[in-house]
Amino acid sequence: MKYIETQTVPSLGLAEVRIIAHTPEAARAVAEVLRRCFAGAEQRSYPGLDGDTRLHLTVDTATPAGSRPAASRSSAGTGAHSDEV
């Protein structure tokens, strides 16, 4: 049986980024680099099944970093994806 995952596509100009790292520090370091490039980096963190860290970001690819205040940032989705527990 073939499994087909259905997900909501982020709004135009937004991208969902999933980071899976061995440590929370490594995931945060990657997220920090993304925040330097893109505005709207809403961050959500989840423990992985194997003791890893899963960090999800919603980034605004249409707005350069630093050009929009943090209060106006929006999230395209919350919670773990269906393939994650």
Structural overview:
The chain contains one helix and three strands. With 85 residues, it is an alpha+beta fold. It has a domain of 53 residues. Strands 1-3-2 form a three-stranded antiparallel β-sheet. A hairpin with a 5-residue loop joins strand 2 and strand 3. 13% of the residues are buried. About 13% of the residues have low confidence.
Offer a concise description of the structure.
By secondary structure, the chain is an alpha+beta fold. It is built from one helix and three strands, in the order βαββ.
What topology emerges from the helices and strands here?
Blueprint: E1 14-21, H1 24-37, E2 38-47, E3 53-64
Antiparallel strand pairs: 1-3, 2-3
Identify the strand order in the major beta sheet: 1-3-2
Q: Count the beta strands.
A: 3
Average pLDDT across residues?
74
The structural class is: alpha+beta
Number of helical elements: 1
Report strand %: 35-45%
Rg measurement, Å: 14 Å
Low-confidence stretches: 68-78
Distance between the termini: 21 Å
Largest sheet: 3 strands, antiparallel
Question: How helix-rich are the residues, as a percent range?
Answer: 10-25%
SSE topology string: EHEE
Shape: flat
Q: What attributes characterize this protein structure?
A:
flat, alpha+beta, 1 helix, 85 residues, three-stranded antiparallel beta sheet, 3 strands
